[in-house]
Write a structure and sequence with these properties.
The complex is a heterodimer of chains A (about 90) and B (about 200). Chain A is built from three helices and no strands. Chain A has about 90 residues and is an all-alpha fold. Chain A has one domain. In chain A, α1 runs antiparallel to α2. Chain B is built from seven helices and no strands. Classes of the chains: A mainly alpha (about 90), B mainly alpha (about 200). At the A-B interface, α1, α2 and α3 of A face α2, α4 and α7 of B.
Chain lengths: ~90, ~200
């Protein structure tokens, strides 16, 4: 049994995407928009960048689905943590 | 003949079901999942404390983002050189592998140098100037804990990559070891992407 062979991703292409998203993040901070809009855009771009790193640099795109679920499990637990902390975050 | 068949069957049974090529990779993924929970708890804790605070400063006004933007760029570039080093060793090009992994290590060292400079500047000048010293405001406490925890990971990554470079040069390690080290390094980059956004930009 050997690793599943896959075509090598375009690493330089991924690099340019990461760079463009980083520049956009910095630009968004200085834009005259509502605080919540800026926060939403920043979080969206950060998640996009993190996903690109995980999928292409860490080759998660080419791994088995179960391994991807193992990799995602911490995020589910973080959401659970936020849920459990809700009474403290929004006290009556 | 039958002995060979038995040994082969034993080897098959010991394969990792999730990462058939090697067990080490699965081990690293499990470690990273645990490590991600540590970072996740710190980031969630940061968010909750910030939400509860009535006088949390605007981070970019206190910290500045020019140097940190450069540090983010550095880590992204070092991630690229890391995958290029893996690609080189998989293609049997050892000279190229050494060049790219050497650049990755250099990127990590420059990142740490920038962080040391940033911390020194914040501790001795900027934070006392705005009245947000480590012991006086959770802004500083959470900042140093999060970036410090990440900085320790970068330090570990630089040492790890240096050991891998030395072991490959001696012929003791191969492509699979580089791939495992790469997973760790990319994780450090991934976490910084989130820290840069949550701690510096938002």
């Amino acid at each position: 049994m050997t690793a599943i062979a896959h075509k090598e991703p375009n690493y330089i292409g991924v690099f340019w995407w990461l760079l463009v998203l980083t520049v956009m993040e910095i630009a968004v901070v200085y834009m005259p928009m509502a605080k919540m809009t800026i926060a939403f855009l920043l979080v969206s771009m950060a998640i996009s960048k993190a996903t690109l790193v995980a999928l292409y640099f860490m080759h998660l795109k080419f791994e088995r689905l179960t391994l991807a679920l193992v990799a995602l499990s911490p995020f589910a637990l973080c959401l659970f943590l936020i849920l459990m902390m809700t009474p403290d975050i929004f006290p009556h | 003949m039958s002995e060979v068949a038995v040994m082969h069957a034993g080897a098959e049974a010991q394969e990792s079901p999730l990462t058939p090529e090697n067990w080490g990779k699965l081990g690293m993924w499990l470690f990273l999942a645990g490590d991600a929970m540590s970072f996740g708890c710190l980031i969630v804790g940061y968010g909750i404390l910030r939400h509860a605070s009535s006088n949390w400063p605007v981070p970019k006004d206190v910290l500045g983002i020019n140097l940190t933007a450069f540090m983010t760029f550095l880590l992204i570039v070092s991630s690229v050189t890391m995958v290029l080093s893996l690609s080189a060793i998989q293609n049997g090009d050892r000279a190229k592998f050494k060049k790219f992994l050497g650049l990755t290590i250099l990127g990590g060292l420059i990142f740490l140098g920038c962080q040391a400079y940033e911390w020194t500047h914040l501790i001795t000048e900027r934070l006392p100037e705005v009245g947000l010293s480590f012991s006086k405001h959770l802004f500083a406490t959470t900042f140093f804990i999060l970036t410090g925890f990440h900085g320790m990971h970068v330090t570990g990554g630089v040492i790890y990559n240096t050991c891998v470079l030395a072991a490959v040069s001696r012929g003791r390690y191969g492509a699979k070891h580089v791939e495992i080290a790469g997973l760790y390094w990319h994780f450090v980059d991934l976490v910084w992407i989130l820290i840069f956004t949550f701690v510096y930009l938002i």
